[in-house]
Amino acid sequence: MNKHHEPTGPADEQQITLRGPAELADALPYMMGFHPNDSIVLVALHGTRGRFGGRLRLGIPRSPREWSPVAQQLAECLIEGSERRGSRPDGVVVFLCQDPAEGETSHRVMERLRPLAQRLRTACGTFDVPVYEAICISDGRFWSYCCPDSRCCPPEGDVLALPGTSVMAAAAAYAGIQVRGTLRQMEARLEPMATASTADQEKALDAAGAALVPRILDGEGRQQVATETLALARRLMKRIAEIPRPGGWAETDVADDRLITHDEAAAVVLGLQDRETRDRAAEWMEGAEADPALRLWRALSRRCVGPYSEHAAAPLTLAGWVAWSSGDEPGARVALGRALLVDPEYVFARLLHQACNEGLDPEALRSCLRKEHGSGASAAAREKGERPRRPRSQRVRPPAGKKRLPPAGTRPEKSVAGNRGRGSRRSGQRGTRSGR
Predict the structure, then answer these.
(1) How far are the Cα atoms of 33, 173, 179, 324, 367 from residue 176, in angstroms, in the given order?
(2) What pairs with residue 35 in β-bridges?
(3) Which residue from 225, 239, 223 is spatially nearest to 269, judged by alpha carbons?
């Protein structure tokens, strides 16, 4: 379960009037860009007409003991974030989205989450911001925690509108807004592959680690590995770009996986653990390079299997960066959230995640990358494997022990989900991690 904040900027200026819990529930995936499974979603409202403002998503904590501190922090994050963007919310809408567990009914889910809804209402109230509506969505039905009228909000819940039949669906289609499926489906595109070839990929990563790590730890060899890594990544991008998309995203992912051998994936994944190599790969963020780069980073994320799961932080962060740079904020937040899932201390992912969540313009970072790694002498030097500037020390470090994880409900820049140990890596075989 993801436990990271995902606020967004103000909604578009197009005027759409939503009346009642039914239309609010139907509008949620269009506001987020996906169906948020297992999620708390808070939406800020502004003005007398209740204009949508910032949105914030967090995975529902498994333990009810976490609900009170999480609710307080979510309310603070949404309200203070809105104030930083220039306008304090006049109200909030709360959504709790969770499908039933095995043997559980959707009505039972609604009742089980009722105390969480109340804690969120109370937390917003401590900031003098009322919750105008709190809605539970489960298994195709919805309930209002605020409306006492059984004529419009019956105890057994109401069925969600058929997809594509509502006013919000029509407006979203007109505006070109796409719903990318469920959050779970979007995350699955980035998870380690679980196929018959998983063991072969792990062996390839072992071999690449044994061959590349000693060279990376050597000053001169490190530059050669960087040059080889970037050259191989470019060849893979060219290979991906030359193959037409076979259909939907699932078919595209399968086709991309088939284009990359285990050894090629292992070599690039290990090479990207060097921070400067990763930063140079981040240049491929726009124009004709963006789409094949994004597909490559997703494919490499799926190749980080077994004890190499933490190595996915680099390609996942690059995938998030390219998605954000290309205007796909939902996809960017999912990829960056996944990077923080596998390594909560990965600095590049934390910074990008926070910037994306605060609604900053990625052009500022694009300009920095163009300036630092643009054309001219620097580019020519890189093509020859030379360094246009002095190397920084302490850039590569060996695997460490387990990290101490922050408590649940941590702020975006310290987002966590899950506990992974590094102790299972064998020295010299499981690769190396950069200084990030």
Answers:
(1) 11, 5, 10, 17, 27
(2) 182
(3) 225
Question: Residue 425's closest CA among 265, 205, 264, 262?
Answer: 205
**Helix or strand (DSSP H, E) at 41:** strand 39-46
Reported residue count of the chain is: 436
Separation CA 122–CA 321 (nearest Å): 36
Give the integer Cα–Cα distance in Å for 173 and 165.
11
Counting runs of H as helices and runs of E as strands, what totals does the chain give?
16, 8
Q: What is the pLDDT of residues 343-396, one digit of tens each?
A: 999 999 999 988 887 777 888 888 888 877 654 334 444 444 444 443 333 344
The answer to whether 423 and 389 have CB atoms below 8 angstroms apart is no
Q: Are 396 and 222 in contact (CB under 8 A)?
A: yes
For residue 364, the number of C-alpha atoms closer than 13 Å in the C-beta half-sphere is 6
Q: What is the pTM of this model?
A: 0.69
**Cβ-proximal residues to 143 (8 Å cutoff; 6+ apart), any chain:** 110, 135, 136, 153, 157, 158
Give residue-wise pLDDT tens across range 15-57. Answer: 666 667 777 888 888 778 788 889 999 999 998 777 888 888 8
